[in-house]
Amino acid sequence: MMKVAGVQMDIEFADCKSNLEKMRTKVAETRSAGADLTVFPECTTTGYCYRSLEEAMAQAETLEGPSVKTVIEIASQYEMLIVFGFLEKEDDKIFNSLALIGPDGIRGSYRKVHLPFLGVDRFTTAGNCLTDVFDVGDAKIGMNICYDSSFPEAARSLAISGADIICLPTNWPPTSGLTADVIPNARALENHVFFMAINRVGSERGFEFIGKSKICDPRGSSLVFANHNSEEILYADINPSLARQKHLVSIPGEHEVHRMKDRQPATYHGITRPKS
Fold first, then answer.
1. How far apart are CA 94 and CA 114, in angstroms?
2. Which residues are CB-neighbours of 95 under 8 A, at least 6 positions away?
3. What is the secondary structure of 186-220 as a DSSP string?
4. Closest by alpha carbon to 240, among 153, 135, 95?
5. 127: closest CA among 93, 173, 171?
6. pTM of the model
7. What are the beta bridge partners of residue 198?
8. Which residues are annotated as catalytic?
9. What is the pLDDT of residues 109-140, one digit of tens each?
10. 248: nearest Cα among 194, 189, 180
11. 3-state secondary structure string, 71-96?
């Protein structure tokens, strides 16, 4: 069993120091509540509403930079697994990235693949991998970011790679209300995985964020739903091994489905056709 926590919080724009200190406070709280994994929103350390590549680049860091080092120190202090969002730089490019941090250091990272023409994503470079899953002992964790969830192939790729838990840090605006209501449940159900969609709240340069964070179980049910735009920490006790039981039997010999074996990949060739 694992206890997971999702931190629905406001974020200070372009103020990594303040955001990291807030993360430290929140992790102290989630550890006191017995959490093993704490997930923060997209762009946790930096904020999202940048107006140029140059402006965003000033806040971007490498995966070995000071923000990640600080989170490693927090994870070590509290014996915690942490997923958080940051702007990652590499040469003259930036990526909308996540890091999975454990008490012993970096366990994994992810660069957002699907980029809307919105906020900092107008200036970031798309990642190129949707198959990395990271073993953290009792669970295998996969990561997507926000708009990735609008493409079923993103979560499906992680499920095929063996993810038990898919973490989806987000910065959902008001136009994403219906997405927040239904997509996490759908992705959990169709892949038979635990799904953590953790959004931010507050406003940034006049842009509002809606909260509505949610943790879903492999049957697609909402374990907890912060259906509001205020700060909250969501908790759920989960058994990652349940996500591995893809053979679902309602009536033996009469009503059975298998979420992975019933796939027919040979018929899906249209999905991989190049974009016109």
1. 14
2. 87, 88, 89, 111, 112, 124, 125, 127
3. HHHHHHT-EEEEE--EEEETTEEEE--EEEE-TTS
4. 135
5. 93
6. 0.98
7. 169
8. 42, 112, 146
9. 999 999 999 999 999 999 999 999 999 999 99
10. 189
11. HHHHHHHHCCEEEEEEEEEECCEEEE
